[in-house]
Design a protein that fits this description.
mainly alpha
Amino acid sequence: MAEEAEQLASRLTNVSMNCLAHADKDAEAYSRLQSTWKKDNGLSESELTDIKKHALDVPTELVRICHGECVAVMKFIPKCNPMIVSDAKVAIHLLAGAARAAYQTVLVNSPSKELQEELVVMLEELGEYEKFVLKSS
């Protein structure tokens, strides 16, 4: 059990660093996207498409990462030491919040209806996880 807790703690530390890296990636993607707004940007259609795709892919990936990590935490909670279960619950809230924030960025990047629906399902699951941890003692 202690080993599983340590592995999850390490995994969550890595995901927090990954989230920060995604924030940097998103800033870079936005900067590149802004360059496409200039009339004479000198970019080919292929380059424009790639830049727009990247601006959508970065926050999409973050939603998926946060969802996956929440699933891992939720599976761990029933086995969690009661003395640290609040830390696991905090992780659920932080990951859910990060996913919702990333989703807002997804929306401004014109996702397909299918992608939007996929991500909404994940966000709804995250909402259910948050409800569960709010009600559990």
